Amino acid sequence: MRLNPQLRSFAEPALLRASALAGILVSACAIGIAWQLSRILYGVFLGGWSVREMPFHLALLLGFAALRSVLGSLQGYWSGLLAAQAKSQIRSQLLASPICDRQTQFVRGVDALDAWYTQYLPQIFIAMGAPLLIFAVACYIDPWSSLIFLITAPLLPLFLALIGMTAKRKQETQWKLLAKQGQFYLETLLGLKTLRQFGISLAWGNRLAQSAAVLRTATLEVLRLAFLSAFVLEMVGTIGTALIAVELGLRLLHGAIGYQQSLFILLLAPEFYLPLRQLGLRTHAAMEGEAAAAVLFPQSTDNVARNIQVHAIPDSISYPCHNLTCKISSPDTLSTISIRNIQARWPSQTQPVLQNLSLNILPGEHVALVGTSGCGKSSLFACILGILPLEAGTIERKAEICVAWVAQQPRLFQRSLRDNILLTPHATALRDPELWSALERVGLSEFVRNLPQGLDTLAGENGTRLSGGQSRRLALARGLVQKADLLLLDEPDAHMDETSLAAFEDVVMSLEAACLIITHRPQTLERVHRVVRMQAGRIL
Fold this sequence. Notes:
By secondary structure, the chain is of the alpha/beta class. The protein has helices at residues 5-8, 13-47, 54-95, 102-109, 114-141, 143-152, 155-190, 192-197, 201-253, 259-296, 377-385, 417-421, 432-441, 445-449, 468-481, 498-510, 522-527, and strands spanning 325-328, 337-344, 354-361, 366-370, 392-397, 401-406, 486-490, 514-518, 530-535, 538-539.
């Protein structure tokens, strides 16, 4: 398996070298143990050793065994330290990156890398060094037996590669299903109250059960292949050792090799295959780590190679699950944003979700985006925000514009209302009068003033102290204080009563900024400058 360069970059070189060297020295100690044991058995049964000669050789044998145990412990300690440091760096990078599915990534995703660093990565170098060391010793003691080592050793990686091609695909599928299931559970927990209100909790539970059954089947497929590969590796190692035993026995009967040399080679045979078998078994840990890495670090499209110009959100934005604000430099155009012949697909889909889509929005223009569910409206927002990479086409934005996104369910944190409004670095210098002005415009000022602590009142985790409409208006206030040039609104008519929605729309329509609004509300469609209809990822 090719080492994942992104995971490899987090490994501390000194710890990796120390862990690999300790593993190779463990095999060197095994050579010493085999040599001493063969000498003792030969001396006791055929060499006529006296009792006085035994203590020295037994002490030397116990010394090799103790040294092997110490080196094995050191190898485990250094590999564990290697994994701990790598996972710490990965978590720090994830905290500074735009990810939505944090509960699966932080809990299961990073922990799945533990075996990759502690077992697979050091074992790669051990499997290259230890068998070569044993092979060199075998060549010196008995070249004929080393020839069998040379013939049978490549069978292990060959069989492993044949099984691994299927196992890797199934492992990646299982991890994608696991990430999806984790997000499904989180959404269920957040929406339990709504499910009970509408009386659909039982039907939703059936959906959860069906999704879990699919994940269970995928997991069992991975386990089945893991057991199959373990059986194949053990079989190849056993066959190789059996061939050595048969060859040594025949030669020993004809006097072509001595008893001590044949016993030494026979004791070395399992040690020769052991690092390769362990590498094969730990490859499944590597596959899980590779699958987890695909979730933790999704590889973006190579835009340079494909001649695609995409202006993505800066890395300083950490939370794409709430309205975002960013400044992006691009060539000046008449349009606030110009989208030209873009094509994009989500990683879990085979067909593009957007195809040959073009759209220009002028400064101050309010555009409504309509279409059936699944036609690509939210995916277009994701492309504009840089969350979904493009496969073709370009997205150009007016130089140094500020973009704000108000999602269907704005992300609010267990901080004060003030902190939830001043979420981005561009707003930290604002003072309270400017915040109250924004709250006044969205119709929240009276509500906030009546709170016990005003702007210092905690919003609650995910805004539990606010209604859906109030959360939406607070998110709009977040965009207003940024003085956004382009405002993206995802179905603002959801979770609002008619009065609140009318007031909300009055604020939006009074903005001088360009607005792209996903909506199906007839009253909203009558007030915008232009209505754009989408179908199957295209503009009609």
